[in-house]
User: What shape does this take?
Amino acid sequence: MTIHLSIILFLPLATGLLGAFLPREQARWAVLAGTVAVLAYAIVLLADFEPGGGLQYVTDDEWIPELGIRYQLGVDGLNLFMIALTAISWVPCTLVAALREHDRPRLFFFNLALGETAVLGAFMAQDLALFIVFFDLMLVPFYFMIGGWGTGDRVRATTKFVIYTLAGSLLMLAGAIALGVLSTPDGGSVSFSLAELQQRHVSGGTQDWIVLLFALAFFVKAPLFPLHGWVPETYRSSPTVTIALLSGVLSKVGVYGFLRIVLPVMPQGAQHWQELFIVVAVFSILYGSILAFSQDNVRLVVAYSSIAQLGFIVLGIFAFDEKGAQGAIFQMLNHGLVVVPLFLIIGVIAARAGGSESLSELGGMAFRAPLLASLFLIVTFATLAMPGSGNFVGELLVLFGTFEDKLVYGLVASAGVVLAAVYMIRVFQRMMHNRPGPAVESHEIDGLHLAAIAPLVAVIVALGVYPNFVVHRTDHSTRHAIVEASR
Assistant: This one.
C-alpha cells in the first residue's frame, strides 16, 4: 500500500489555510475535518506498518543541496506511535475548541492546524536540519494561542515560554551545525541526514559538548528540572486545549530527540553524560511528585506530575537497556493519552464551578455525574499506574531496564510511583467526593464532550489489556537506537 507521509504532514496546514478564507463559523469545522482525516491516515499507518521492517514510507528529496539539507521523512518503531498520539490527541482537542466561542476563530484554528503540522514534521523528519525547522516552528502557533487566547498573566507566561524555548532551540541549532560540519570527511560534502550522520565519525570530546547542547534544548521542551521555569505561568494562563496538547504531545518531542538523534548519532557523548542525565531524571521524578502533592490548583498538579512522568521516560532512555527504551516509548504514548483527557475533564469540571480550578473550591461532582466520575476515575488509575493499565506496563519496563545496571537509581525512582498514587487519589477525591464547593453545579457530562473524551479513555483501557501491540512494533527500532550507546 502506498502511503505518502507528505499528505499526513501538510493536511492540517492545508485545512487551516482553507479555514482562513471561509466564513468565521465554518473555519473550525474545516480544521476539525482535517484532523479527522489525519487520524484516519494514522490508523491506516498503524495497520500497514511492518514490525521489524526498519524505516518505512520514506520520502527523500533534495531541499537545500548547497547545505546538505534534504526533505527526508520516514516511519519506524520510534515515531510510529508518536505520529498516532499526535493524530489521536488533536481530534478531541479540536472538537472541544470548536464547541467554544473564540475571538478571531479563523486565526485560532489556523494556529491549531499549524501546530499539528509542526509536531508531525518533528516526529517524521529523518534529516537533522529538517527536524530543527519543525522543532522551532512548534513555538510559533503555541506562542500565539497562549498570548492571544490565554487568561490571567498571559504576557508574562508567553514571554517566559518563548525565552526558555528559543534559548534551547538556538543552542541545539549551534550543536547541529557543528555536528554537520565536524563530521564531514576530507573532500566530502556536508550532510544532515540522520542515516548519514550515523555512519560518520566525530571524536568523543566533540560529541560531549554537542550532546549537552541538544540536551539543554530537549530538557526545556520536555520539561525537566531545572529547566522548567516556564511551566507554572504557562499552565495557568493557557487555554485548556492548548495546554492539553502542549503537555500531552509537544513535551514528547524533546525526549523523542534523545532516541532519534543523540543515542544513535553520538553514542560516546550519550555515555559521557549518562550518569548526569539519570540524576536529572530521578530528581525530576521526586521533585515533580512532591510539588504535585502540594498544589491547590489542579492544573499545576498535572503540570508537576508531568515533570515526574517525563523524568521516568528519560530514566528509561539513559538506562541504555532494551526494556528501558521500550518502556520509555510506551510511557511517551501512555502519558499523552492520559494527560489530554485529564485536561479536558478539568475543563469540563471548571465550567461547572464558575471557572474555578482550585481543589479547595471543587467537590461533590460525582453526585449527579456518575459517567463523568467514571471517566475521571479510569484516567486517574492510569495516571498512578494501576496494574492493568498501560502506564503500569510502561513504568515496569523502565524500572526493569534501570535495575539491570542502575539499581540504586531505580529504587529511588520507585518512590515516584508511590507519590503519584497519593497526589492523584487526593485530586480525584477532592474534586468528585468532597463537600460541594460554593459555586459547584453538579450535572452529567454533555454528549459532545463525551464524544471527545470517551475514545481516548477507550484507547487507554485497550493498551492496558493488550500492551504488546505497542511493544511488538517498537522492539526492533529501540534495540537499534541504543545498540551503540549500550556498548
Notes: The CA atoms of residues 252 and 345 lie 21 Å apart. The first strand starts at residue 56 and ends at 64. The chain has 20 helices and two strands. The mean pLDDT is 86.
